[in-house]
Every structure is written in structure tokens, then in C-alpha cells.
Specification:
The complex is a heterotetramer, with two copies of chain A and two copies of chain B. By secondary structure, chain A is an alpha+beta fold. In chain A, 22% of the residues lie in helices and 27% in strands. Chain A has a single domain, classed as Ubiquitin-like (UB roll). In chain B, strands 3, 4, 6, 8 and 9 form a five-stranded antiparallel β-sheet that branches. In chain B, β3 and β4 form a beta hairpin. In chain B, α2 runs antiparallel to α3 and α3 packs antiparallel against α4. Classes of the chains: A alpha+beta, B alpha+beta. Chains in contact: A-B, B-C, C-D. At the C-D interface, β4, α2, α3 and β8 of C face α1 of D.
């Protein structure tokens, strides 16, 4: 299935892309999408312990399932305000 | 002039419009308010010993709006008498400009102060917003809290800081 | 437009002018501020079950100004990084109008929130100002705190409410 | 010696005067001015326990001395803000 990956702030700088389209196996979780992405961009791996993620603009845990057409976002630690 | 109570975008923040909207919605409700507290976060010219030139804010806007809604709901849960408005800006911000404005209104001051402080603490904990600091000699993404809206410890810390 | 940082009088309170003055004095100082907290006290349409028509504020103005100076000095002592402005209105005030505005500015938010809350608590404790409530069916002078600026217990209570 | 007495809020209502000129004995204290005043306006006496006072627009205690020409103010419990 095909998903959109959204990357922000330093994650975007490290990959050079704010948005990527990727094929992932049916039944993949957010964590599996992340694992696939760190395979492609090893520099991202350091963010694993401090990562947040969202599916379709709603916070989701790494074990959340992903469906075809979903937008999966990965968020480094936040600094708004 | 009416603006949304919760918003994020590149336009400069109009605190007066924000306060006016809060005063109007719902109609007549503000007549029972005796306390209005406003927090403005502004861009400082120094941070961690660095001379800041400007900041660049980036956000995952639809999720940021949902985070603001969550924060407003949490505040309403803890302080039912409080009404809250919150605007966050994104894009390039110069020194002295406001990145965030939070306005709370309530019959009594303790609740308005508490909810306003709580809201800014929660924004810093869970709003998907990032600032890149451009300083003399370079730039750096500031990374603060690991965003987890379900983290009860973080929420407790926000209540503690709100003196609630 | 520049206004005094501390003032009392019959003119409607211009919060924007107050904040602008605080931003200008001393020159450049506001560039290091990251947090601005504003408290507005407004006239409510109900109090203690009574339908309020309007309030009348009276003050011993020269002593009130000295009390504001004392409060500003106490806040500066506890929160040296904070700058503070405070305007109180006297005379007849209609529902929704502001009787007091306090603006605090500081590099960080904890200090700005603390000093702002402290200042309103102290105003209610020691400023020689009285309000007469005109309600449906009569009027009454509201009598709150026995004003004693040297009362250490009252001051401690104000610090406690400021979460300091 | 001659002093000015200032009265506020309900104290003003009870006496019908915002300002009074009174002669008090040399060496009088704020407390003695108050005692003289409650002799003249007995309704004020109830405020004794909750009274604040000022001399020349500065808070002063009841044992503070008063000088000729001073402005002595009596303040009921305050309700600003």
C-alpha cells in the first residue's frame, strides 16, 4: 500500500524532504514505517527514543496500524510557544 | 472584528482582536467575567548566550490545531468557568514579535491565571511546533519536549506550574 | 503614546498604551523579554447573588500611587527580571469595563506570571481603593482587606497565590 | 494645632464629610485623633478594629505622632482591584 510520510524540523533537514510517498507492506504499523525510513536515512535513527508520530494529523503510537492512503508524520521534540 | 478562538498561521497576532472575540463569544458570557489574563510569548534577542537574529517557526498545522483543542478541553475540564483563546504564529519572526498569545477570561482571577499558565505549559509540551533559531554564526532547531498528549506526568507538571 | 507605568485616575484604561510604554522603557530592555502577562480586572454583572448595575470606585489617590510603588518594589525585589506597569481606574464603571490593568514583562514566563499575580493580590490587600456596588435594589460599599503594608502574613499569602 | 482629616468610602458616608478640619492637642497621635472623631461621630467606632490610617498620604500606625498642618486619613477595609 502507498502512504505519505510527513517530516518536520530537523527530520526534514536530515532527509531533505518535507513529504515523501512510500510503499509499505499491508498491515504495517507506524513503527514499521519508521524502521523502513531509518533504513533509507540512517541519520534519522538517533531520533527513535525521542520521536512522536501521528496518523492523519492525529497523534498515534508506534504500534498503531497504517492504512493505504494514510498520512504518517514523524515529529522531533517540540519547541513551540 | 471576529477571529477564531484557536488558530495557527503566518499572520501577525492581533491580541486585541483575540480578546475582543473572546469577549463576544458566547454572547453575553463576558458580562460575568471579572478577570482576563493574557500571555504573550515574544522573540528574545538572546538565548543560551547566543545573539539571536530571528526565529523561524514551523508547525504541523492540522495537528497543532487539534492539540490546541485538546488543551482548551483540558483547561475547561479543570477550570469550567474559564473561556480560552489561543493563537500561534509560524514563519519568520523578528525580535520582539509575538509567537503566541493566550487569553483566558473567568469570573474570578485564580481560574483565569491558572488556565492561562496551564495552556502555555501544555503548548510547550504537546503542540507540534518547532522553532529554528538563527543567531550570529549559525542556526539550530530547538528541541524541547517529546510530545505525548497522554503522558500523565507531563500534564501533572503543567498543573503544578499553573499552581492548580 | 507614552503613559506613566503606575497611575490611578478616572480615564478609561488603555491597555495597549500601557503595554507599549512598558515595551519602550527602558529603551531596548524589552528586546530581552520573552514573556508578557497582562491582568485585567473587569466589572461583573453579578456579585454574591446580586445583579450589579455599575460600580463606583473611590481612592485616596496619592497614597494609592505610593502603594503601587511599594508593590512594584516588592515585585522587583522578588523577581528582579520583571518590569511592571499598573493602572487603576476610579469613578463610575459600567459592566465589562476594566477597573485595573497590570502588565508584567520578563525574559521568562514563570517570573512574569508570578509578579503579575502577586501585584493584583497586593493591590487587593493594601491599595487604598474602595468600590461601591450599585445593584438592583440598593448599593453597598465593599470592604475587603484591612490595609496594612507591613503585615508579613498577608505578603506571604500573596507570594503563595503567585505560586512563588 | 490644626489638622485636616480625610475620610473615605463608608467612613465618609457615616460622617457626611470627605474632609474635616479639626483642632487637636499638641503631641496628639493618630489614635487620639481617631478617638476624638468617634466622640463626635459614634457610628465610626465600629471601624476601630479594622481601621487603617495615614499621615500626609503615607501609611502610619495609630501611635504615630501628628503635627500641625498634617493630613490624617482614616481608611476602612479596602476593595480595589
Amino acid at each position: 500500500m502507498r502512504i505519505t510520510v510527513r517530516l518536520f524540523a530537523r527530520l526534514r533537514d536530515l532527509t531533505g524532504a518535507a513529504e515523501l510517498t512510500r510503499d509499505v507492506p499491508a498491515g504495517a504499523t507506524v513503527g514499521q514505517v519508521w524502521a523502513q525510513l531509518t533504513g533509507e536515512f540512517p541519520a534519522l535513527a538517533a531520533y527513535g527514543p525521542s520521536l512522536s508520530s501521528a496518523v492523519n494529523a492525529d497523534y498515534a503510537r508506534m504500534d498503531a496500524p497504517v492504512a493505504d492512503g494514510d498520512e504518517v508524520a514523524f515529529l522531533p521534540p517540540v519547541s513551540g510557544g | 472584528m471576529s477571529v477564531p478562538l484557536l488558530a495557527i498561521g503566518p499572520a501577525p497576532i492581533d491580541v486585541a482582536a483575540l480578546a475582543a472575540t473572546l469577549a463576544e463569544e458566547p454572547a453575553g458570557r463576558s458580562l460575568s467575567d471579572g478577570a482576563i489574563v493574557t500571555f504573550l510569548g515574544t522573540v528574545r534577542n538572546h538565548n543560551l548566550g547566543r545573539a539571536v537574529q530571528y526565529l523561524e517557526y514551523e508547525a504541523y498545522e492540522p495537528l497543532a490545531l487539534r492539540a490546541f483543542e485538546r488543551i482548551a478541553a483540558e483547561a475547561a475540564d479543570r477550570w469550567p468557568s474559564v473561556r480560552l483563546a489561543l493563537h500561534h504564529r509560524v514563519g519568520r519572526l523578528e525580535i520582539g514579535e509575538a509567537s503566541i498569545a493566550i487569553v483566558t477570561a473567568s469570573p474570578h482571577r485564580a481560574e483565569a491565571f491558572g488556565a492561562c499558565r496551564y495552556a502555555i505549559e501544555r503548548v510547550k509540551q504537546i503542540a507540534p511546533i518547532w522553532k529554528k533559531e538563527h543567531f550570529d554564526g549559525g542556526d539550530v532547531w530547538i528541541e524541547g519536549a517529546v510530545a505525548d498528549p497522554d503522558d500523565a506526568t507531563a500534564r501533572e507538571e503543567a498543573y503544578r506550574r499553573a499552581c492548580a
